[in-house]
Amino acid sequence: GGGGGGGAGDPASFSSNVFKDKWRNSKASMKKDQWKLVVVKATSRELAPPKTKHVKAILMGIDNGGADFSSRNSAAGAIMHHLQKRMTERDWIVVTKTLSILHFVLKEASNREFLNALQTQWAGVFNTMNFQDDNPAGYVNAPFIRTYGAYLIQFCSTRNQIQFLPAKQDPPLTEEVLVSKYQKSEVKELLKHLPLLEASVERILSIDITGPMASNQVGAAAMGMIMQDVTTLWKTLARAMENLENRFFDIASSKESKLAYELFKYYAVNLFQKADKFFGILVKSKPGYAPPPKDPIPAYLLEDMEDYVKNPTAMLTRGAIPRDVPGADGFSHPMSGPGMGPGGPGGPGGGPSMPMGGAKLRGRRGRGGGLMPQNVSAAGYAEPEVDPFGEPAAAPAENNFEAVSGTR
Predict the structure, then answer these.
(1) What global pTM score does this model have?
(2) What does the alpha-carbon distance between residue 257 and residue 133 come to, in Å, rounded to a whole number?
(3) Which tens digit of pLDDT belongs to each residue from 138-192?
(4) Residue 221 and residue 209: Cα distance in Å, rounded?
(5) How far is CA 114 from the centre of its chain?
(6) CA–CA separation, 119 vs 307, rounded Å?
């Protein structure tokens, strides 16, 4: 199919593509190919999110479609065949809707055999790096489509290897259970899983939401699920890194301490910078969205970690060294926590600085609970209640996709 763009660009081209979809629907109806009909309607060229009834039909077809995905005679096989074909369209509306439906399937489907196939042999369906739509609207939305597809590829890879983000479970996992996954893990598990968790966070923070997709109706479903994923992933990584920090100076293996330092440094520097930009855009483009807390890491902590990697014996015998804690630590926000703000020890108008150096000290950031404050419930983070396939309030009720649960 040629470029669409919801009427933007060449009107003749758009009209031609709409006619093609109508012809496909007509043929599918005559051949009683109900799944083709549903998929084409769900990924229509209309400037609106997919309709509830079509997405629900796709999900039900997958969950009740059996385990034979190689044949189009099965519901699951037919649905996947037609979704794959829609991904080859040179139309930003069709491809965005298809990606959002596949993302929704990854999050909400209960057919494990289908999910395993989608995450492995069919994962290439998410490869959108060469996507092109020559119409103006397609051109400006292409960066989002390419980077969104790259995130979903990483989503599949990470789930395959460490089962995170997990598939939907019964009973569902609460957000608190999800984000606490690595809060008490041993160092070996952290070093095995954190590279993949960081890769997922890096990919989702790299989704290009600087264009119009962040605020248009076609991208509403995708943006809702991206906000859910990035919030959960960041909270999980933050708690995992707090755990790694608390265990770091007990790591005996030089190889493990070096890897732990590199992982922590990448989180504290690279990912923090990406997160500042990404969450900043979300706050501006999505009123009411409250990003997860980001407690900054002071530079001295990275320096102490680096010293420990180079000479652990010297670090272990150095003991506590008093350090002055500046009002701003070189990262994106001033330090916070008991005794660290204005009026507290080490803060403007406060008392003496807290002893911060030395391998025997823990809780180095004065967090009083860490990156994720323990005295704040999961609900306290104002998790956005997003309807991934939601439409404007004036739309008919049958078009409003029911909200995706914030649990798993």
Answers:
(1) 0.77
(2) 47
(3) 999 999 999 999 999 999 999 999 999 999 999 999 999 999 999 999 999 999 9
(4) 13
(5) 21
(6) 41
